[in-house]
Every structure is written in C-alpha cells, then in structure tokens.
Design brief:
Elements: H1 2-14, H2 18-40, H3 44-71, H4 78-90, H5 92-96, H6 101-111, E1 118-119, E2 123-124
Antiparallel strand pairs: 1-2
Helix pairs in contact: 2-3
Length: about 140
C-alpha cells in the first residue's frame, strides 16, 4: 500500500480517488480468490494461512476505502465563494498583490474572460476583460 501511495501520490488526489477505487476492486477480487481457496482446501495449516492472508487483505481494503473517502474534496459553500468574489471586486489589487500563487491565478480568472494570449517577440495580446469591470454604472450593493 505504501508503494501505491508513493508511486502514484498526487495522481490519486487529482483523480478524485479513482485510483483507490480501482485498487479496492482488485483487493475484493483477491479476497474472493482466497475465500474460494479456503473452501476448497482440506488442510488445517493451509486454511490458517489463508485466514491470515484474508485478514491482511480486508485490513488493506478498509484502509484503501478510508483513504478514497478522505481524498475527495468537499465543494465550497455558496457564501464562501460569493464572499471571495465580492472581496475581489472591491479591491482586485489586494488579491493580485498576495504572496500566494493561487491567489494571483484566481485574480486572472476573475478578471479576464479567456486565458491570456502571448506571442513570442510581441508580448501579450489584448485580452477580453469581463463585463463587470467595463460598465461604469455597476456598483456594490449596500447592506
């Protein structure tokens, strides 16, 4: 399991746990095989070895299911999303001047309609700005 996490690391988080679901399916198939072998065997020694293997697989499956559940990020609630957008409209420079790269990326997404086009040797092309910044009659709502 540790090798799965270290080798696939961030891919599992970005896929929303799909890597963990595939691993859980494989573990369930292995559990079914071990149970079938336990039923077919007549040796007590082999049966106890199969029981140990079955317990190990079930523990590994439980850990995998728990990790899959924890890697799915919950969606932000509406109030938090709205508050971020309103704070940005009040002062876009504050968000752009932040030290965090994710804040600067968010500032670009909230300001421009599309990705910024860049031409080598000429620089950035004129970007389409969202309508909220262009209309002078738009004001903040008063509480």
């Amino acid at each position: 399991m540790a090798s799965l996490q270290s080798s696939k690391g961030s891919k599992a988080i970005h896929k929303g746990g799909s890597l963990f679901r595939g691993h859980t399916t494989k573990l369930q198939r292995d559990i079914d095989k071990v149970v079938d072998l336990m039923i077919e065997t007549e040796s007590d020694t082999a049966r106890s070895a199969y029981e140990k293997r079955l317990q190990k697989l079930e523990r590994e499956k439980a850990v995998t299911v728990e990790r899959a559940a924890s890697c799915v990020r919950p969606a932000r609630d509406y109030d938090e999303t709205l508050r971020t957008a309103v704070e940005f409209l009040a002062s876009p420079w504050k968000l752009w001047n932040s030290e965090r790269f994710s804040d600067k990326r968010l500032c670009l997404k909230l300001t421009f309609a599309d990705k910024l086009a860049y031409v080598r040797g000429e620089g950035f092309r004129t970007a389409k700005v969202l309508a909220d910044f262009l209309s002078p009659e738009v004001e903040m709502a008063r509480r």
